[in-house]
Automatic annotation (TrEMBL):
The keyword Ligase does not apply. Arginine methyltransferase involved in the assembly or stability of mitochondrial NADH:ubiquinone oxidoreductase complex (complex I). Acts by mediating symmetric dimethylation of 'Arg-118' of NDUFS2 after it assembles into the complex I, stabilizing the early intermediate complex. Keywords: Methyltransferase, Mitochondrion, Transferase, Transit peptide. It comes from the Eukaryota. Coiled coil: none annotated. It is found in: Mitochondrion. GO terms for molecular function: protein-arginine omega-N symmetric methyltransferase activity. The lineage of its organism: Eukaryota, Metazoa, Chordata, Craniata, Vertebrata. This is Protein arginine methyltransferase NDUFAF7. Residues 179-189 have a biased composition (Basic and acidic residues). GO terms for cellular component: mitochondrion. The keyword Coiled coil does not apply.
Amino acid sequence: MRMFLKLNSLRKPSVHVKAPGVLALRWRLQRCCFCSSPQNESSNISVLRHLTSKIKATGPISVAEYMKEVLANPVSGYYVRNDMLGADGDFITSPEISQIFGELLGIWCVSEWMAAGKPKHFQLVEFGPGRGSLVTDILRVFSQLGALLQSTNLSVHLVEVSPRLSQVQAQNLTGEDSQSARDENEPAYRRGTTATGLPVSWYRRIEDVPVGFSLYLAHEFFDALPIHKFQRTERGWREVMVDIDPDMADRLRFVLIPAPTLASSTLIQADEQRTHVEVCPEGGVIIQKLTNRIAEYGGAALIADYGHDGTKTDTFRGFRGHKLHDPLEAPGTADLTADVDFSYLRRMAGTGVACLGPITQRHFLHNMGISIRLQVLLQNCPNAFTQRHLLQGFDMLTSPKKMGERFKFLALLNHQRLSSPVADTKSGKKPPAPLPVAGFSELGPLQGRN
Ligand SMILES: C[S@@+](CC[C@H](N)C(=O)[O-])C[C@H]1O[C@@H](n2cnc3c(N)ncnc32)[C@H](O)[C@@H]1O
């Protein structure tokens, strides 16, 4: 299904778009950067102190525990602190690069909602919404299709660990029209209403999101979840952990734990061929919860991230100030990430849902009609600067050397979505085949499209 919208509010190119050559090498850097301020330095020292006292008390900690402390510690976590999105920061992801990205995902959502028989209650759920740009672009698509969704009870649900980012999202989505929960035991810690009257709620965990027909989106979310690292040795799999460097008390280092750990005994597949493996059990648990919800209540999930299909080994890294950063250096001042293992996510989904993909971002966006949407925007856009910005964004999102190949899309669907309805025995009428899943069906050869 294709729908194209009128150019209305093109995102201002306020975010610095790096030169293509630079981006090819450092696709992740478009994401987060913040300047090193005195506040950051003192926060860095306190994160380091916290980690070293923990290690002194209990011994080396897993990489998963390290990531969790550094990224999501309620006081000092990288995602929790507000200066990550400072005025000078150049945090940029696909939804931040171009409005087209969110618009096409909006069309994907409408398409899946229609294929499910236009359920009356429709929850749009996003994990890790960053600044809220993706959901803003999606809601603009929804409001332009107002007639179609008019009698639908639509609500927006955001799963966000960062109180500061939730404020940014609330400002962008609801203006002043949101309030924090009075009681901290309430499932939603913030609630608001968009300008068009849609209710928006914020949660810390998927368990808190109401059940019901939902379309779940996760863009650059799974890569931020904690991973365990393992190394194959002559004596079997061993876990890589984080310890204090014995030569420098204020430095951390990786160590290989000599005895098996619970994680090394339970998280590795028996037929694993690689010598170094990263596993994200938290991601696996979220996928299982999504699977159960989609199987029971209907809906779909669309997961987009950079990653591989069970082939890569050592991808844990940090990024700071647009540069690769030693992930153990100055913890709390840099983003930590690991490539998403899509084969693991599919395995965790099991047979409860149908999985499509992963396919590359380039294929997905072309299948969704990004080239045609670009042409419409270019035709409606009079000024050369904005046209150049649109073309740059298109190139960044789709070029194989930039984000086109590294980023992948995986869909989890209720099984009914792909099954043919049973033939009517009385009339003998052949039922229509299920609608193709937008973005995952080939619309034609890719040659010459980039
Ligand atoms: C790299 S940002 C991506 C933001 C956005 N999706 C985008 O693409 O622009 C990761 C997002 O996930 C959130 N996040 C990280 N870990 C989380 C967790 N365990 N639970 C909920 N949100 C989390 C962060 O606060 C942030 O909003």
